Amino acid sequence: MNQLRVLWRASPVWSAVALALTVTEAAVRTLLMVGIGQFVGSLPASASARTWRWFLVVAVLLLAGPILQSSLAAVTARCTTAYLVHVFDLVAEVGVHPRGIGHLDTPDSASRIRAVVDATRDWSFVTGAGAIWLIIGPRLAGLGAIAVLLPWRWWVPLAVAASFLLVSRVFMSWISLAFDKLLETTGDARRRASYLRSLLTRTESAKEVRLFGLTDWLSDVYRSTWYEAMTELWRERRSGLGPVLLACSVMALTVGGAFALIGLDVTAGTVSLAGAVTMAQAILRLQNFGVLGDAGTALARSTSTLRALANVRQELGLPAIGPAAAQAESSRSTHAAAEVRLDGVSFGYPSRATQALSNLTLQIPAGQSIAIVGVNGAGKSTLIKLLCGLYEPDQGTVRVDGADPAVDEAARRRVAVIFQDFVRYHLPLRDNVVLGTATDDVLQQSLTDAGGLALLERHGWDTVLSTEYDGGTDLSGGQWQRVALARALAAVAGGAGVLVLDEPTAALDVRAEAALFERFLEVTRGVTTILVSHRLSSVRHADRIVVLASGGEGIVEDGSHDELMRLDGRYAEMFGLQARRFAQ
């Protein structure tokens, strides 16, 4: 059972202590059941010494029970903490392994990953982590009840226990099936419903939803879409109710028959009062083999989530419940500019019929600044993602200082990128510039070179860049651009040899972008720099400009700005069109 294996792997010592306490508590429950029976049976003797002895036994056992339960609760908390840390580490590995993002571009795979991640955040998963001891303890106490009843009629406790087990198995299968189906229901309808719900609740969409009066319409569409997504799940739940009701009927008849037999034996005088009380308790204790309320439901959901997580990890080439093996780090370490080579690279996205890049060959000498331009769909961003190792090419090779960034961690770290949709972390300014440790000099210099010194003077390093936190603040688009650029410059200070700007300044006007790029090329002189932009005036000062044709046809022009203008080809045509538009 994965649940026990993960628990033992996460915390073997505390799990062993919890198991010992659980066994002891089950033994105390069994002895208490016998003790109460003997105490009640001795009452007609008018408080004899035997009565007082059994009274003391019952009192001690009643006192021991809460002590053991409290101790088990404390130990369970330690086990649960270690368990959740281990599982959350497994979930985190799903997000970063494999290193590329190809599996996240597949809707089915991405949806199942999101479903598992969301399930691990649910309260039922958190409570289910410690519910296993709430299941094992009563089950062991149930075994004690069977031992008490065996000398009477051996087949009665087995039949009653079997009926409760039947109910438990059928009910938990029903619950697990419903929850598994929920995790697997990741089709377009459910994804669309989740998106529509987010439009009703997100801050980003709040203004337009209210101004355009979309609340009622979105609510109606969300409701109908959610019904469409959940219809199959509800059908599965209804179809599973029949076996559950049948199992409950069998259990009721079996338990009723057992009590009837006890009554007949008491009437016949073959069972004493003490025996009858003990056996009645034992029959009731056998319900511990049945459904154990919220603990059982939480454990079922936790088990289903863990099973789904294990399946996702195995599909990604990771161990099911253990951490991935640490990858050997390259001993190469340098702060020099890196050389970039792409030889015969072809790549296509699974969702597209045509290739994004076809037989592309490009060499960038160390220390050169190069601009990559072209119309939408020419493959500019795809080229950058291949260079970062986020995808592996279908054909050809990508090398950074001779190493493959798709498999070599050291090569990946040599590439620093700021994308157009860079992350705006809800963290202090300091952490937005460097996610990790860095000297104050590196932080100060990076932000200064990015033109963001005014931000520091106004807000300070420790201000959280989000209005969702007390004392936090938000930045304008241009201010965020400078923070992102400072992040890239700090990466260079940390050893990156290739710096890529993939249209991160799209939110700026043309003059601000041109000024920022000129400043950027100045402060990064000597670093291999790749600029991607639609605005050709912003990249004219790069050492070299590469023009990509649309449709994945590859490089059609390559040279400096002046050379390409004299060539009077595609670049000159695009530059002239943009120049006339801005002049107007």
From TrEMBL:
SUPFAM superfamilies for the chain: ABC transporter transmembrane region, P-loop containing nucleoside triphosphate hydrolases
A Gene Ontology term for the protein's cellular component: plasma membrane
Domain ABC transporter: 340-577
Signal peptide from the UniProt entry: none
Transmembrane segments: 50-68, 123-148, 154-172, 244-264
Main location: membrane
One Gene Ontology term of the molecular function aspect: ATPase-coupled lipid transmembrane transporter activity
Pfam family, one: ABC_tran
Origin: domain of life: Bacteria
Membrane topology: Multi-pass membrane protein
PANTHER family listed in its UniProt record: ATP-BINDING CASSETTE SUB-FAMILY B (PTHR24221), ATP-BINDING CASSETTE SUB-FAMILY B MEMBER 6 (PTHR24221:SF654)
Protein name: ATP-binding cassette subfamily B protein
Organism: Kribbella kalugense
